[in-house]
Amino acid sequence: STPLYSSAASDVYKRQIEDSAIPQGAHMIQLGAFDSEQVALLQWAGLIDAQPDLLEGKQRYIEQTTSGGRTLFRLRAVGYGSATETRAACAALAARGLQCIPVQKR
């Protein structure tokens, strides 16, 4: 089959998945934890522009959490089929100097 490529960057920026649509145990990668949702969105936009080959077909998921009394927004990419895929994606991102952690939905 032919790979599908985004026709417009704006389509990629809108590719948000809701928490309820992600099954328990789903494999994803965490690309950072930020002080605001806006910063997480900007980071995603920058990553999509800079690394389109590594994030093609993935959906953005921003999870709000509290750590040490601070609210953080975890930026994650969803759409991986296995732990092997998330480890490979993180290795490729790390090779380009980017932070990445393979995670699973709890």
Task: Tell me about this structure.
The protein is α+β, with helices and mostly antiparallel strands and 106 residues long. The protein is 34% helix and 30% strand. It is built from 4 helices and 4 strands; from the N terminus they run αβααββαβ. Strands 2-3-1-4 form a 4-stranded antiparallel beta sheet, with helices on one face. Strand 2 (59-67) and strand 3 (70-80) form a beta hairpin. The longest helix is centred in the middle third of the chain and has 14 residues, at 37-50. The radius of gyration is 13 Å and the shape is globular. The termini are far apart.
Keywords:
106 residues, alpha+beta, 4-stranded antiparallel β-sheet, globular
Brief summary:
With 106 residues, this protein is α+β, with helices and mostly antiparallel strands. It has helices at 9-13, 37-50, 52-55, 83-95, and strands spanning 27-34, 59-67, 70-80, 101-104.
